[in-house]
Amino acid sequence: MRAMQATPSASNLPLVRRLEAVGFRAWPAASVIYDGSWQIRLAGGHPSKRLNCVVPLDPSDFRDMDLRLEKAGKRFQAYGRPLILRETPLAPTQLVEHLSEAGWKRFETVNVMTADLARLALPDTIDHLPTHDVSRFIDASLLVAGEDPALKPALAEVLNAIKPAKGLFTIENSAGGPVAVALCVQDNDLAGVMGLAVAASARGQGRGTEILSSALRWARISGARSAWIQVVADNLAALGLYRKFGFRQAYQYHYWREA
């Protein structure tokens, strides 16, 4: 059975390629190799799916699919990772059909959204300036997101490997505890907002709007003209926030794993 795929028109594929490229630079994997046009991304310490996946980047490159998937699987096994493939609109239709017929399953869909920063009504001043204390930002991020503190060294490795300019944003409550975090990476005229999270105890208080406003204002002052985000398709609260800021869907991607 042919898998359904939301595919932009050919005229939109250059945008997809550009957003994929800035996304790779904004969230760099420790190991990146190519098998033809398939990018194989792996990270020994951090379990992020974006850091540990195969990403086909040419719709015409579908030769020797079984052999190449088998070779990729051995690389993932060496890292102690399950083999995951990320299907963007650049993935060959033949490969997507092959995965479906071979029993692979889609297990997550992510929306990539963009906004024109020039059209956004943002405050004249930045309420929260980015911090330069990477260690403190990581501690806040792990606490707000409820993630394992043991991930700190791996997250530090990822953040320190980001080459474009980055803004690390945190909001604290009156007691000094973190309640919201966001990472903004400004790459020439594009800025990506990632890792935006609000503590469960602070939701519904406008903290998401507050920290996103600061990140986007910083990006615009720094020279970005457009912003992009990636958000899981069933995260309705985040989608509502981003749409309020003028973000609209550019494309979707999907994660696949063996059954």
Automatic annotation (TrEMBL):
Q: What CDD domains does this protein's entry cite?
A: NAT_SF
Which Pfam families does the UniProt record give?
Answer: Rv0428c_C
Return one GO MF term.
Answer: acyltransferase activity, transferring groups other than amino-acyl groups
Instruction: Supply the InterPro entries for this chain.
Output: Acyl_CoA_acyltransferase, GNAT_dom, Rv0428c-like_C, YpeA/RimI_acetyltransf
Q: Which UniProt keywords apply?
A: Acyltransferase, Transferase
Gene3D superfamilies annotated for this entry? 3.40.630.30
Question: Where does the N-acetyltransferase domain lie?
Answer: 129-259
Q: Which protein, by its recorded name, is this?
A: Acetyltransferase protein
- Organism, per UniProt? Pseudorhizobium banfieldiae
